[in-house]
Amino acid sequence: MKGAPVPMVVSLLAVLLGAAAGCGMVQQSRRNRADAASCERGDGRACMRQGDLWRGYRTGPNREPDALQRTLAAYQRACDGGVVDGCLRLVALYGLDPELAGERARGGQFALRACELGSAAGCGLAAGEAASDAARVGLVRRSCDLDLGRCVGAAEAIADLPEQALQLARRACVELPTQCVAATRFARSAGERGELLGMACAAGLLQHCPAAARELEQAGAHERARELARVGCRGGEQASCATLGQLLATPAGP
Predict the structure, then answer these.
(1) pLDDT for 2-20, tens place per residue?
(2) What pLDDT shows up at residue 26?
């Protein structure tokens, strides 16, 4: 993959590799031989088990010199056969393994394949290798479509494109009001922050009503500010009542 992976991506890659850890150093049992044969016939899950097995032979007293290549081959068979985990393991290996430092670009290919197979994580990782801003935006939007919980993270991935990032953040807030506070990171004005916090308030997260009201008051949306303060106050949120009192005591602007 291009350059040094950013910390968030490194963490995700490490998690993907960690999912295969703990397989142990075992001998090639009858089941393992059966898996090898099944993998050759196109059984993706058997290929995953073979990949995990060969990863275990990369170190320790049973180390095999060709274990890495066998690992990659098994995971690629799984990925080619439509097993998302195989693609993601390859992304992780090509992204983090020092023996593959010269082939990091291949990780992006497998991330794109994972995305095509419906992996939100794959789409997010593929976005990091996209050749253009348009492709990057398309991939993070796909990630958000596949997993609404990733929308704010998707916005973070395109934070250098503020309008598109705000669109994704707003969608996260609409679909999952608990994400509204995180979404405010991409707001560019008090009005936008107030709008996002107001969505949380209107969805019943009354603790956000006072902040929403204050931001909207600052932005000049006086009636909306009072409306949201009333919502919180009627719901028993005492800070909203205090904010409403302050707003009512302050003459609204023109």
Answers:
(1) 544 555 555 666 656 655 5
(2) 46
The residue written with tokens 């001998």 in the block is 27
- Count other C-beta atoms under 10 Å from residue 170's C-beta: 20
pLDDT for res 59: 85
Contacts of 22 (CB under 8 A, 6+ apart): none
Classify residue 32 as exposed, middle or buried by CB count within 10 Å of its CB (0-12, 13-18, 19+).
Answer: middle
Q: Tokens at residue 91, please?
A: 């992304």
Q: How far apart are CA 234 and CA 78, in angstroms?
A: 56
Low-confidence ranges of the chain (pLDDT < 50): 1, 3-4, 22-27
Token reading at 99: 């023996």
How do residues 171-181 score in pLDDT, each as one tens digit? 999 999 999 99
**Straight-line distance from the first to the last Cα atom of the chain, in angstroms, rounded to the nearest whole number:** 55
Residue that has been written with the tokens 């935006």 in this structure: 137
Q: Rounded to whole angstroms, how far apart are CA atoms 152 and 173?
A: 9
Q: DSSP letters along 10-42, please?
A: HHHHHHHHHTTTT-------HHHHHHHHHHHTT
* Cα angle: 98, vertex 100, 106; to 5 degrees: 135
Q: Is 130 left (phi over 0), alpha (psi -120 to 50) or beta?
A: beta
